[in-house]
Each structure stands twice: as C-alpha cells, then as structure tokens.
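Handout, tutorial session.
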Amino acid sequence: MDAVEFPLSPRVRRARGLLVATTAAGAVLVGATVASVVSDASGWVPVPRAVQVSLVLVTLFVLPVVWVGVRAVWALRGRSELFAAAEEYARRRPVDRQLIDHLGDEHPLTPLWWMVAILGGLCAFCLGVAFPFALADGAALAGALLGAGLAASLAALAVAVPGIRRADLRGEQDRRLRTELWSLPNAVERRLRVPLLGTGDGSHLGA
C-alpha cells in the first residue's frame, strides 16, 4: 500500500501553528521561571516572592495542561480528516508523519485526562493536608481558599477518571478503523504504540 500525504484543511494547520506557538511560549515561561529562581537564590537580582511563586505554579500546573490540550485539539482535527479522506485514496495510506502525528494507538484526549488526574490528585493531597491546619489556626480566608481549591481538585479528579475510560474506548475504536483502512509496516505500528505520557510500553504516569 503506497503512502501519500493526505491534504489537511487550514484549521488543522492553524491548530499546528497554535501548538508551535504554545511550545515556544512554554519554553520562554520555563526559562523565566528557572532564571527567577536561580537569580533570587544566588542574590544576583531579587525577585518578589509572589512573582516567583506565580511563575512556578503556572509552569508546573497550568502549562502542562494547556500544552497537552492544544496538542489534543490538533491531533483530533487531523485524525477526523484523515479518516474522512480515506475513501478518496483507494489503496493509499497517509505518510508516516501524518500517521504518527494524528493516528497513534493512544487517543489524543487520553494524555490530557491523565494530566488533569495527576495534577488534580497532587493538588487534592497538598490542599487536603493544609486545610485542617488553616481551620485550626482560625484563618477563615485561607481556609476558604484552600477549601475551594480542594473542591476544585476533587471535581477535576471526578471528571478525569471517567474521561480516561471514554478516551481509551474511543482509541480502541479508532485503532480498529485504522487497521481496517490501512495495512502498515511493523516499524510504523511500533511507533504508533508509543504514548505521549508514560514509559513507552503503553503505560502512563500514575498508572
């Protein structure tokens, strides 16, 4: 089966451009966070504590979810268009790059749900430990903020766990459809099995 590059719509290319921009902005944010921590620790340039904490929190908790979410949008758009265009290319398959970008064994939403579950679990644990101390000290505002954060973290967990299951089921359906449409070399099949998160053997962080 010959490989040809399937044409993708401008919205897929825009999503790709947004992913590139998000990656570049993330790299700048990570660099700024590291620079602020190093400069403050070494005494070169004093950095306000609030700015430093904000940079660290955004880098650790917001940036990963945003990047994985933007990547999921790009992968999902390309995936749907490749499947839709299959009938127009009899005895042809997408090139390896398109397959790996959009048609991996792992559904594009699976790593996003895993990221939300992992970060939600970490936040729930940390806030759950701090919440009783805030109540014991009589800090009403801190207790309210910690309680709201704990509730949001638990809600994220409640949404993410079934989301992982739904994405895995959809990924299995897409794998069957891909197998029915195209016969792929073993080397490509192996690359399609590598997940975005995890150890490369089909498992994920936190699994």
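The second record follows below. Compare its token runs with those of the first.
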Amino acid sequence: MKKVLFFLLGLSVLVGCKEAPMVKPPKKPIERAVMIAIYYDLALLEASKYQMYSKSDYEKVGAKEFVFKKYKIDSLQFVENNKFYAASIEDYKNMFAEVEKRLQDKSNTLDTLIKRQQAAKHKRIIKRKHSNALKVVK
C-alpha cells in the first residue's frame, strides 16, 4: 500500500512539475518591427481620442480598423500575434520600450517645431511693434 502511495505521489510530482506549454506561433506571423509600428500607431490614435470633441468623432474614424487596413491584417491576426509576443514578457517590455522611445522622439520633434513657430511669431510681433513705433515718430 505504501509503495502504491509513493508511486502516485511521485507520479503527481512529475506531472505537476511539467513545464507550461509554449504559446503556439500564430498562423500568420507579423514581424517584430511591424508589430512595434502597429503598437506605435495604435498609441497615437488612442492619444488622439482625447483631443477630439466627442467620442462619436473618434468612433467614426475607426482607429483600429484604420491600423489593421494600413498593415493589411485583421483583428484575429493581431490578437494571435499579440498573444505570441506577450508570452515572452522581457521581449514584450522591450517592444513597448521602443514604442515609448518613438513616441518621446516624436514629442520632442513637435515641441521643437512649436518653439520655432512661437519664436517666429514673437519676432513678427516685435517687428510690427517696432515699425508702428517708427511710424508714430515720423
């Protein structure tokens, strides 16, 4: 009886210690760089949602459908690939770190452009005031 009990206990330990099954590769794989681009576009569109006047405007755009059409994928293909990449948490973190870096680079570029526009506008205002002052003096 003890031998049977130890056998069952040993069998349960062996079966219980089995590695978790790996996530199957998707039927239609999307390259890592393309997935990063998809995440980037989705992040931009998600952020733009908060700049629109109403939620109905955002829904009219069909952001996800737009991205899927742009990359010629469907929602199922996206979900399968997302699940596949998420199975490796470190790589998944690295992918989103790249997305974050791209977003930060874009933000820095836009900030620079805005500052240049503001500086140019400020120069035009000063020039206008200066020319108006000269007209008054004459």
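Points raised in discussion: The chain has six helices and no strands.
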